[in-house]
Amino acid sequence: MSADFAPTPRFVDGGISYWWRDLGEPACRAPLAGDTDADVAIVGAGYTGLWTAYYLKAHQPDLRIVMLEKEFAGFGASGRNGGWLSAEPPGQLGRYARAHGRESAVRLQRAMFHTVDEVIAVAGREGIDAHIVKDGYLQVATNPAQQRRLAEHVPHLRAHGWAPEDLQLIDAAELGERVRIPGASGALFSRHCARIHPARLARGLAEVVERSGVTIAEETTVTQVLPGQAVTDHGTVRAQFVLRALEGFTSGLEGHRREWLPMASSMVVTEPFPSAVWNEIGWRGAELLSDEAHAFAYVQQTRDGRIALGGRAVPYRYGSQRDARGETLGNTVEQLREVLGRLFPAARGVGIDHGWSGVLGVPRDWCATVAVDAATGLGHAGGYVGHGVASTNLAGRTLADLVLRRDSDLVTLPWVGRTVRRWEPEPLRWLGVRGLYAAYRMADRQERGSASSRTSPVAHVADRISGRAG
Ligand SMILES: Cc1cc2nc3c(=O)[nH]c(=O)nc-3n(C[C@H](O)[C@H](O)[C@H](O)COP(=O)(O)OP(=O)(O)OC[C@H]3O[C@@H](n4cnc5c(N)ncnc54)[C@H](O)[C@@H]3O)c2cc1C
Fold first, then answer.
1. pLDDT tens for residues 313-322?
2. pLDDT score of 1 more than 60
3. Which of 97, 184, 201, 331 has the fewest beta carbons closer than 10 A?
4. Pocket of ligand 1 from Cβ distances under 6 Å
5. What are the pLDDT digits (tens) for 46-101?
6. Residue 193 and residue 134 in contact, taking contact as beta carbons nearer than 8 Å
7. Pairing state between β 65-68 and 215-217
8. Reduced to 3 states, what is the DSSP secondary structure of residue 90?
9. Residue whose CA is at the smallest distance from ligand 1 atom 34
């Protein structure tokens, strides 16, 4: 291992996430106190469950809501993510448009723009200090193929609700005024993104929801979801509505094993950069940053002057297995370290303090769903394909409207009530995802070493086979 970005003596692998280490892992709330009656049972206390409870209570304060959480609120992806509160859609706009018409996809996109501001407004109103700064995001091209793809995204996005003021292609000089990345030829800039501290948002929301009268039962595992019942290891909650909010953990529930693939994403966080390094990089704002690689990396500058960088190094474990407490697999940390070195060579020598992973939910058609079946009272939301930080809020508002039969614009958005085919059984699932990411990494290597602006044909084939192409 080179001395660049080497793990420091304080390095932790797993430990849920750096965000929880920074904040302090919370003491768990009490488990479910035996069989209970409620109006709504919510399974999982990540952002989806918490936002749903928040809006249900906001509309109908006397509703009896019980949240059932296996560990503690924010233990899952909601307390481990990259902190991109972003208006990027939870799925392919083209696919939503083909199924429901272009106007419908545009409505979803406009709702996502509003959602970023809604989260910021609620955090402000409720006194949640989640280190939020809305400086937008930069999607950076580091080779000619990436640059061409960025340019090709623009007309596609323009056709689906992104106006000129929502998205601009900027050149290398303009990019250099915001951040200096060696070899970068330009970027897409959007103002619709804010940096957050994920665990602070999860913890703050859980406290707000609890104060509003919602019961959050922690260390309580739901073993079965049936119409009118959520069965747990501490008793059964009988409720008219039972809502699943498990995203990447859905495959652990009986009857839902192949619904959403638990895709692993991993992150590292560095020590704070010395100010000389920040000066050299010239990154003075809090923009979120990603590259346009097929196996892309996502980056945030933390409030305490570190860099947190993530990517999908080992994207899937055989049989939909998940990490226990965020530990990474294989050479994940080394792979992310290499990306850090490429993007920020000026910071070489700065150490890495933490590495962790988590799971997000990927449906077979790479598009998210929100649904409530009025006949059975069963509902669910998720499959945000890595864009869940903001979309969980939109999903929560939508679930609340569906449960309360509110005739809002949200209940007709194109992600409502979709049915999606299941993932293939093993070993096809494992072979497929492994092959997909091997192909993306190969395509990225080819494009990195090439002067051609053509996207590697390997990536085109992988997109088509996986269903990821929108
Ligand atoms: C490393 C990483 C980086 C990411 N970065 C970003 C990003 O920067 N921007 C973005 O938009 N999205 C990002 N995502 C995705 C985003 O974090 C998720 O889509 C979102 O947090 C999902 O929230 P959720 O509440 O639906 O699920 P989760 O937060 O995963 O919550 C599910 C909860 O269910 C609980 N649970 C599991 N099984 C049971 C059971 N049987 N009974 C009861 N409870 C159970 C879990 O403990 C967990 O608390 C990232 C994800 C990961 C893993």
1. 788 999 999 9
2. no
3. 331
4. 43-49, 68-71, 75-78, 80-84, 86, 221-222, 245-249, 252-253, 265, 267, 298, 310, 358-360, 382, 384, 386-390, 392
5. 999 999 999 999 999 999 999 999 999 999 999 999 999 999 999 999 999 999 99
6. yes
7. parallel
8. coil
9. 44
Q: Take residue 262 and report the two structure tokens written for it.
A: 């638990």
CA distances from 266 to 328, 370, 382, 383 (A): 7, 26, 19, 18
Instruction: Return the SS3 of 402.
Output: helix
Secondary structure element (H or E) that encloses residue 341, with its range: helix 332-343
**Taking the model in full, what pTM does it have?**
0.97
Gap between the Cα atoms of 88 and 113, Å rounded: 8
Q: What is the largest CA-CA distance in the chain?
A: 65
Taking alpha carbons only, the member of 304, 303, 286 closest to residue 193 is: 286
With beta carbons less than 8 A apart as the criterion, state whether 48 and 30 touch: no
Atom of ligand 1 nearest to the CA of 356: 1
Q: Are 191 and 134 in contact (CB under 8 A)?
A: yes
Ligand 1 atom showing the smallest separation from residue 390 Cα: 11
Domains, the chain, in order of start with CATH, read 7-11+134-195+262-358 (3.30.9.10), 16-125+198-260+364-412 (3.50.50.60)
- As a residue count, the chain comes to 470
* Ligand 1 centroid from CA 165, angstroms: 31
Residue nearest to ligand 1 atom 2, measured at CA: 81
Tell me the H-state helices in 128-272: 144-158, 172-178, 198-211
382 C-alpha to ligand 1 centroid (Å): 9
Q: Is 443 exposed, middle or buried (0-12, 13-18, 19+ CB in 10 A)?
A: buried
Q: In percent, how much of the chain has pLDDT > 90? A: 92
pLDDT tens column, 188-218: 999 999 999 999 999 999 999 999 999 999 9
Distance CA 290, CA 297 (A): 5
CA of 199 to the centre of ligand 1 (A): 11
Could you tell me where the beta strands, DSSP code E, fall in 159-259? 168-171, 186-190, 193-195, 215-217, 222-226, 229-232, 235-244
Tell me the pLDDT band of 401, cut-offs 50, 70 and 90.
Answer: very high
- Give the list of residues 6+ apart from residue 438 with CB closer than 8 angstroms, or none: none
Phi-psi region of 317 (alpha: psi -120 to 50; beta: other; left: phi over 0): beta
